[in-house]
């Protein structure tokens, strides 16, 4: 119990999502909001503005001319993508450090999280989901629990690995068995502490088990699929990625054709270097 209390207390040691990101999310959820409302919030935060313009002008977007203002960025990319980029900018500090317990070097968890979020956004668009920012943010932050659990996983790695290799546990299941909580559950607790919507909390908590989600099974399945695609491409495959359980029924629920799937993977493979330029890995 003392170990669990120690883990939960560390939620408050994470760098919280900046206030500007929370405001931007509220604007994105308001159907009456406008480009002006969005730009008005962003321009008063110099760090967020600088990071946004850096991302917009990266090779990933390949815009025909340099973008010099928040308003111009919204005109070129639309409100939804600008919201995603602001949230991306606000999330990096927690995810860029090395996670030795998961065998991830500095920057690897960040690259994996951003890649997963971009793929999830593309999937959400294909499936006609309007709240793409919800999917993007959930995919971006789904592994925030790893940042807290990292040291506990490192200290208990032999026990966790024994369950994986000898008893066919997934790494997440072994985490839960040995430590008392897994990174997805803990990620859901972080999302609650940051006052994210119940739907986003549910997606983060169930991103490995979307079929168990009561209020967001389809959205959780999209985030799970994005996670799976990253694993298949070798992005973010640390110690836990080598013991990952594939759920074909979840993939089937998305009604994604094999051709669509292959095109998505091939398209993202081509964009990897551009993703790195955007996030400055």
What is the residue-mean pLDDT, rounded to a whole number?
88
Total strand count, please? 0
The CATH homologous superfamily name equals: Hypothetical protein af1432
Along the chain, the helix and strand elements come as: HHHHHHHHHHHHHHHH
Low-confidence stretches are none
Q: How many strands, which pairing sense, and closed or not: the largest β-sheet? A: none
What would CATH call the architecture? Orthogonal Bundle
Distance between the termini: 38 Å
CATH class: Mainly Alpha
Choose one word for the global shape. Answer: globular
Strand content: under 5%
Helix content range = 55-70%
Number of domains: 1
Rg estimate, integer Å = 18 Å
**Structure class:** mainly alpha
Helical segment count = 16
CATH topology: Hypothetical protein af1432
Description:
It contains 16 helices and no strands. The chain is globular and about 55 Å long. With 281 residues, the chain is mostly helical. The model has no long low-confidence stretch (mean pLDDT 88). The protein has a single domain (9-279), classed as Hypothetical protein af1432 (Orthogonal Bundle), CATH 1.10.3210.10.
Question: Keywords, please?
Answer:
single chain; Hypothetical protein af1432; 16 helices; 281 residues; mainly alpha
Chart the SSEs and their pairings:
Blueprint: H1 2-9, H2 19-29, H3 35-42, H4 46-56, H5 70-77, H6 79-95, H7 108-126, H8 132-141, H9 144-155, H10 157-167, H11 171-179, H12 183-193, H13 198-205, H14 217-232, H15 248-253, H16 258-279
């Amino acid at each position: 119990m003392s170990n669990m209390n120690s883990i939960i207390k560390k939620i408050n040691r994470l760098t919280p999502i900046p206030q500007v990101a929370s405001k931007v999310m509220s604007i994105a959820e308001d159907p009456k909001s406008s480009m002006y409302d969005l730009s008005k919030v962003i321009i008063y935060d110099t760090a967020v503005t600088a990071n946004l313009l850096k991302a917009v002008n990266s090779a990933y977007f390949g815009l025909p001319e340099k973008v010099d203002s928040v308003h111009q960025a919204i005109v070129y990319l639309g409100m939804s993508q600008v919201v995603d980029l602001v949230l991306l900018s606000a999330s990096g500090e927690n995810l860029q450090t090395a996670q030795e317990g998961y065998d991830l070097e500095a920057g690897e968890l960040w690259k994996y999280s951003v890649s997963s979020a971009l793929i999830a956004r593309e999937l959400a668009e294909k499936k006609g989901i309007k709240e793409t920012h919800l999917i993007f943010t959930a995919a971006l932050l789904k592994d925030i629990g790893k940042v807290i659990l990292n040291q506990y996983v490192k200290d208990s790695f032999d026990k966790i690995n024994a369950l994986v290799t000898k008893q066919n546990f997934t790494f997440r299941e072994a985490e839960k068995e040995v430590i008392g909580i897994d990174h997805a559950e803990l990620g859901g607790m972080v999302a609650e502490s940051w006052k994210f919507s119940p739907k986003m909390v549910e997606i983060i908590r169930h991103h490995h088990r979307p079929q168990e989600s009561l209020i967001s099974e389809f959205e959780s399945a999209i985030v799970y699929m994005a996670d799976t695609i990253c694993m298949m491409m070798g992005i973010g495959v640390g110690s836990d990625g080598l013991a990952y359980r594939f759920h074909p029924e979840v993939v089937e629920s998305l009604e994604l054709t094999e051709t669509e799937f292959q095109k998505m993977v091939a398209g993202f493979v081509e964009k990897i270097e551009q993703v790195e330029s955007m996030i400055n890995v």
